[in-house]
Design a protein that fits this description.
Elements: E1 2-14, E2 17-30, H1 37-48, E3 52-55, H2 59-79, H3 83-88, H4 90-109, H5 118-126, H6 130-134, H7 141-146
Parallel strand pairs: 2-3
Antiparallel strand pairs: 1-2
Helix pairs in contact: 2-4, 4-5
Length: 151
């Protein structure tokens, strides 16, 4: 069985209309970690269609990396603020870190060897993105679907 993760920024513009506003990457692979001809062929087909695609033998790790990372969006949803203000406040920044760290711990309990410092590395990666802190167009899809940037 193939499984994977999509990295696409999209939002519901109106009923029946989904607008993609960034990202178009797929990672996928066999659940058993095998490198197979079908994953190679599928990767080739996606790339020919102009989609950034990567066949991975460590797909469980890729899925848990994404899950742990999007946990930051869940933390942001709880406080109902854009990411910039969330990361600027020490208490909510720590809340985001703890949320990601909890997802990492669950993944590790399932045998997926996420790095112990994944939460810190993820926060370091997203902190310099000024677009996420200043303009709604780059918001996570849940935030775009909820409407304006007011708290």
């Amino acid at each position: 069985m193939l499984t994977g993760a999509a990295y696409v920024n999209a939002h519901r513009e109106e009923p029946g209309v989904i607008r993609r506003s960034g990202g178009q990457q797929l990672v996928f692979g066999e659940l058993n970690g095998a490198d197979t001809p079908r994953t190679a062929r599928l990767c080739e087909v996606f790339q020919q269609a102009g989609i950034i695609a990567e066949a991975r033998t460590d797909i469980k790790l890729a899925i848990w990396e994404k899950f742990a990372g999007i946990s930051a969006a869940g933390a942001q949803a709880v406080v109902r603020l854009p990411l910039g203000p969330v990361l600027a406040c020490p208490e909510t920044r720590e809340f985001v870190r703890q949320t990601i760290a909890e997802a990492v711990a669950v993944g590790r309990a399932y045998g997926v060897m996420l790095p112990d410092n994944y939460a810190e590395r993820f926060i370091a990666m997203i902190t310099p993105f000024p677009a996420w802190t200043k303009r709604p167009a780059a918001a996570w899809s849940w935030r775009r679907s909820m409407g304006r940037w007011s708290a």
